[in-house]
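Hey,
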Amino acid sequence: MKDIMTAPFMTEMIRTTTNMYNHGWDERNGGNVSLLLDQNEVAEYLDISAVIRDIPTGFDAPELQGKYFLVTGTGKYFKNIQYAPEVNLGLVRLTDRGARAELLWGFADGGRFTSEFPAHMMSHAARLSVNPENRVVMHCHPANLLAMTYVHELDAKKFTRTLWQMCTECIVVFPDGVNVLPWMLCGTNEIGVATAEEMRSARLVVWSQHGIYGAGADLDETFGLIETAEKAAEIYLKIAHLPLLNTITDSELWQLAHHFNVVPREGYLEKE
């Protein structure tokens, strides 16, 4: 059996979480990431019949029964993952209609998955129902997007249009837009349900005064999705207090959409 530390999914998880910390998105133990894995790729590196322990999840997700996830741990610092992945990460399999997680590797200090695990799993279920290729859910605290929720209307259409107009590539990278939730208590099933519902129509969901959730096909794509929105938010904050002399018009946004063969969220642009 191969060494799990050589697995591409492990290498990418370590690289991505380290990069997220270095970007300043995941201070202290802030943020969490979960990656859906295929049974066959897990079985190359682990005896999938050897369960270390069971961990209650506190929710039901029958559509994720038997699914495997590599996930960050609760109270863990992203800066430490590269040095002790077996302590800060865990690989689990959901059983009992999602009510329990069987730990197959990791959380070597007796830890468990992130407190946002319910929100992650509900979002996974929502995105898989829309696009079976979406295998990553990523939560972090990008400073500019967070700051934007203090000074911008928390309306998904208006928030999205502002970001689209800040940087030419935005409508190409997230044509489905950005959904926005008002402040809610984190670490609860309630915010998990609300986030999952918003994930059905967009791969980015902003948690006001907190951070953002992103979903994508792989770790690179999801990181890039958040990175692009965060850059747009940074530009917005640099110019929001200044007279706006120029912008990217709806006509120009349509040009971008046609050229790059993407479909903008319906109703978010003026008709051509």
